[in-house]
Amino acid sequence: MDILLSRDTAAAAIFAPAMQIQAGFAFKIVTKKAGVATWGGFIKRTDLAVECFEEKDKTEINGVKVQVKDNITTVLVLNKNGEKKIGKPCGRYITVDVGSFANDADILGSRLNMVAAVLKSVLPENCGNVLVAGLGNSAITADSLGPKASSYVFATRHISAQLRKQMGFENLKTVSAIQTGVLGNTGVESAEIIKGVADIIKPACLIVIDALASGSPERLGTTVQLSDAGISPGSGVGNHRFEISKKTLGIPVIAMGIPTVISAGSVVNGSEDMFVTPREIDRLTQQGAKLLGMAVNVCLQDSLSAAELYALAV
Questions:
Q1: What pLDDT sits at residue 24?
Q2: Which DSSP helix (H) or strand (E) runs through 30?
Q3: What is the pTM of this model?
Q4: Residue 199: which residues within 8 A CB-CB, separation 6 or more?
Q5: Other C-beta atoms within 10 Å of 220: how many?
């Protein structure tokens, strides 16, 4: 058995050898405190709409339409019945299977172009002023995807029109990037911070990036979900925060994320009060953040190459 205690917590737990056998690879323990996960009780073990549909045995559901093409699966939640059946608000949920990139030296290739193309398909037209928000706790590896991804986003709002012309960047879209932190550190909900910034800079749309929870070990670090239905941070691990959506902010909200945690109950019976991560979580979040941040750049700034955008962003 090869189970490692996450450096993010001093908690400990004992798992049966069955964990590695069932999951197929080693895990780190994320957190356990007094028998209850500090991210909340076991309420809903996945953020992925495709897994919510799969939990219904892939049967036909009134109000839900599923389309599969190559390695892209689109779940359309069409009405209130669909919302009730799979527990997701109306909207599009696109799952892209990008394969494992934990050991890849470079992600600036086909998977980057694929994710950027899907993002472009869900963004509203004529979206010239975009706010990107990285959600999560940068001090906890499994929750640091959002802040790390936002650091790769090429922010341009501060570049004047004159300077853009001098640099030959007249076609740059206006982009702002923020990291909201977490309520326990700031005392302010992420949704409140975003709304305050949005009220000042008046973006045409918002892109939020956050770490997700999965119900399948195979999807950890191999799947990107994009949605035009917004996000409720922490919902996959039972720690529901204020909703971030068009309904609450008044502008289109696109959510992006990669699963980084899974309920231990998905791999070991009776362990639903704990969430675990792959052993390669440090590499997974770093590469995943680069993929999502650069996908935003490639999608929005199509007058520049991926290599040029990477040089400008880092």
A1: 38
A2: strand 27-31
A3: 0.83
A4: none
A5: 27
